[in-house]
Amino acid sequence: MGTALDSESHSQEGSDVRMLTFGLQKSCQSRFGPRVGRIILAAPREECTTDIAIDGTSSVTLDTPNILVGTSRGVVPHLSRDHCNSADAIKWINVPFESFIEQSPPVPTLQTGPDPLHNFLGFDKRRHIVSLCLRDPMDTREMPPNGNAYVSALCVRGVRKVTPSDWRKYVYKLQPDVVFALSDTPFTAPPHSQKRVTKSIERSIAWLVDILRSLEYPVRPCSLPISGQPSQHPLNVFVNMAGGTSIPAREAFAHSLSEELYGPDLEAVKPIKRLDDGVVGYSFDLATLRGSIPKPLCLLRRTQVNNVLQQESPNMLQDAVKLIEIPTPENGDIHTPPPLPSRIAESAVLPDAASLLQASLKQLPDGKPRLVTGVRSPHEMLRLIRDVGVDIFDADLAIAAAHVGVALDFAFPLPPDLGPSEEGKKKDVGHNLYDQGYAHQYGRLSDCLAGAAESQSQFPTPLPICPCIACSPRSPTSHILHSKADVQSYEERDRSGKVVYNPPRSRGYLHHLLHTHEMSAHTMLVAHNLAVLDRFLFGVRDVLAGRRDGINKGEGEDGISRFTAEVNRFESVYDESMEVIHVARKCWHEVDLARGKGRLWREKEKQVLVEAEGVSGG
């Protein structure tokens, strides 16, 4: 099965294979409590050891909890490659491959030489972990159902069917640092029947077996430890934990990962004896668990801009109570094990996100990274760290806020003098720079972070530095030479590599750029919001590690208890409803339509009619 594929994979074997390892701080004892760890992506060493040497030329280190940055067609929204390569907050980049499959073969697979995915997209191998998934985890539009032998993926030319063998071929051709196994996720309106949930589990397991099956040629085993044991597969595979909103279904899927294989499955994945032995991490997509009905296919890439930034509550999950058997319109049946217990689709109490994640993880080893996409607020991040021990979050929250002109402004832990207001009104997590109130504000974007050029003496207490291109803009270390004649003009006045920081960009300046539709406004906002989120999780790691003001005060229970107290303070001060985002979205829409008399003008007239009909109908 796939001889041509394996021969093609063998031609790529000459490039250095980097293996992902994850280590937890020794003080992390609880399975689901907050924890601090480190992910290292490095070339395997000759001897297995717990001390991982870091080669600065080819290794990437990521302290956790941390963030993953999603892309659209391999591009971080609003940022150039230079911005990505210079931003400290961007270390793990995820590439949904469905945006490339409109052509056959997909264009990225035509890249030759070592590290084809890094080179094709222009990401620095020394700075970035680049992962590859088929579907965008934040895209919740309603899709045609998957089949037994294919996944429905969406590209610019419509829906395409991607088979597990296709996915395997793409992965071995592009050689990403991390690959997400195919998962059968329902993208139809809930509730989902027991039959559909069972099919989702069975297909996801079958597709995981396919990506883990052994190659035709020998592969040098990994010498870096993962959960105390050497890795037994050349790919760094993350598996999406299936089961939807049913706790029994999630437990059944986790059991399928941990049980010993037998028969054809065991022969296919030798020397792996359990599927979990070939998996380096677990992922959870919260966007598909929300209670909102998926929207039909449309021109918009995601529905997240409209509903992701809302207050999280258990009622936002799909209702899994007493699901009705609904036939699934797929062709053919596959040979599967005996059906899962009937209680798989029943739940007396609607579970929350933390309960679902715990159900998936309680049977599995705790020494592997846990990745979550679709978080709606920093509050939800803190709760998932506290209650589940999540290690990686996607940064789509920051990008979605920047898209509607919001500069995030929050910190963890809170300064000692910051508490709930006397009026009882909570503080916004950011600033809506479309608002006219910012037209003449000339301060920096964030109250919690300072620019590199600002003097700390002007603040009552020292503030952390925001390294983004908006708060700490840097002058070029040397003059940009556009011709040979420029050498004569600037040769004697070269800065000799000295970094010079300029004053921060003001809120009024960003307000002006947004209203004049300057693309640089969103570029600066994305860079700033990612830096705020990065600093936010840096503060989380500091608290959990027992550090205060950069000084280690001891680990263990002291850090965890302080973290719990700081989470409660954060929730009491900052508004989790994200009202500033909703107001900003309306302002963005008004400014976006006020651009002339072309298509946007017709859309504006149409919107007025829709609103008028809604008022009259009410």
What does this structure look like?
This protein is of the alpha/beta class. It has two domains: 3-401, TIM Barrel; 406-601, no CATH class. It has 17 helices and 21 strands. The strands form seven sheets. The chain has an eight-stranded parallel beta barrel with strand order 4-5-6-9-12-13-14-15. Strands 1-2-3 form a three-stranded antiparallel β-sheet, with no helix packed on it. Strands 7-8 form a two-stranded antiparallel ribbon. Helix 5 packs parallel to helix 6 and helix 6 (247-258) runs parallel beside helix 9 (353-361). It is globular, with a radius of gyration of 25 Å.
Short description:
With 618 residues, this protein is an alpha/beta fold. It has helices at residues 3-11, 81-86, 116-121, 164-174, 194-212, 247-258, 264-269, 304-307, 353-361, 378-387, 396-403, 485-490, 507-515, 519-544, 557-573, 579-593, 599-617, and strands spanning 19-24, 37-42, 60-64, 66-70, 92-96, 129-133, 151-155, 158-162, 178-180, 225-226, 229-230, 237-240, 279-285, 370-373, 392-394, 406-408, 430-432, 474-475, 500-501, 547-548, 551-552. Helix 3 links the parallel strand 5 and strand 6.
Walk me through the topology:
Blueprint: H1 3-11, E1 19-24, E2 37-42, E3 60-64, E4 66-70, H2 81-86, E5 92-96, H3 116-121, E6 129-133, E7 151-155, E8 158-162, H4 164-174, E9 178-180, H5 194-212, E10 225-226, E11 229-230, E12 237-240, H6 247-258, H7 264-269, E13 279-285, H8 304-307, H9 353-361, E14 370-373, H10 378-387, E15 392-394, H11 396-403, E16 406-408, E17 430-432, E18 474-475, H12 485-490, E19 500-501, H13 507-515, H14 519-544, E20 547-548, E21 551-552, H15 557-573, H16 579-593, H17 599-617
Parallel strand pairs: 4-5, 4-15, 5-6, 6-9, 9-12, 12-13, 13-14, 14-15
Antiparallel strand pairs: 1-2, 2-3, 7-8, 10-11, 16-17, 18-19, 20-21
Helix pairs in contact: 1-4, 5-6, 6-9, 10-15, 11-14, 13-14
